[in-house]
Amino acid sequence: MHSVALLTPSHAKDLERFALLCESIDACLTGYTRHYVIVNDDDVPLFAKFCSEKRVVIPVSRYLPNWLWAVPASLLRSRRRIWLSLLSRPVHGWHVQQIAKIAGVLAVPEERVCIIDSDNVFFRKFDIGRYAGAEKSPLYVDRNAIRADAPFHSIWLRNCDALLGLSEPSFPADDFVGNVLVWDKATVRAMTKAIRSATGKSWELALCRKRPFSEYLLYGRFVATSPTHLAAHQIVERSLALAHWDESRLDQSSIEAMIHGASTEQVALCIQSYSGTSIRDIRGVLSAALEHEAA
Predict the structure, then answer these.
(1) pTM, entire model
(2) Distance of CA 23 to the CA centre of its chain
(3) Of 42, 113, 176, 280, whose Cβ has the fewest other Cβ atoms within 10 Å?
(4) How far apart are CA 19 and CA 38, in angstroms?
(5) CA 180 to CA 113: how far, in whole Å?
(6) Residue 30's domain spans which residues?
(7) pLDDT tens, position by position, 255-293
(8) Total structural domains within the chain
(9) Which CATH number is 174's domain given?
(10) 3-state DSSP call for residue 216?
(11) Helix (H) and strand (E) counts for the chain?
(12) Measured between alpha carbons, how far is 97 from 145 in angstroms, rounded to an integer?
């Protein structure tokens, strides 16, 4: 078995959701060594209370190149964070989180890393080590889900293929974006080398200059187009997490219906923060699910 860590990027705006994620991890997950939490440097004091023997909070600057620096929040006109560089256009929080995920996986000692964004919660007990640390690393794939006219994914896919030095993709194409996804560190290292080879730049600079993209598509496309790395992965066509990607607000009964409809292998729930769904409602449904799980 390979060693397994958890990694979560977060920020102050998601503090309540992150707190709920931590509660569910502590109640449900086993088989991992450490939970690494990456936050903006000035958010570290807010997240310090979540530190424990198995959870560590890390400032994002530790995982960013020294030529990329954050604009102080006091100088910003909005809450949207900006990082500046003399080598690329300004980058924002979403891009920085994607870079930090890759750098974080390369930096930790564990061989496999399960990436869990802060709008996920676990509602069933689950041995993540047995799943993520198996001989072959799981790779989630949604077959032929990306159409050529998809407003975001098709652009992300084309940019990812350009970063990897691949030819123009054909459509419909497989999608690798999801929740509770596992990355193999050796594969991530090989992926960053492929980006450097294809672009002639460091992988960090290449990502800052080529936007928008998806880190999950980048990893998935690298694996899918490399026979060697594909052979080291186990294709998984059902996500571990139920997901609500829409902007529509869910009420408590809708959340309950999602969990009641979960298949036996689904152990987590992701309700995107932009849906405006009440964290109180999510917490209420989760508490009931965990009580049932413990009974």
Answers:
(1) 0.95
(2) 18
(3) 280
(4) 14
(5) 10
(6) 4-294
(7) 999 998 899 899 999 998 777 788 899 999 998 888 877
(8) 1
(9) 3.90.550
(10) helix
(11) 11, 17
(12) 24
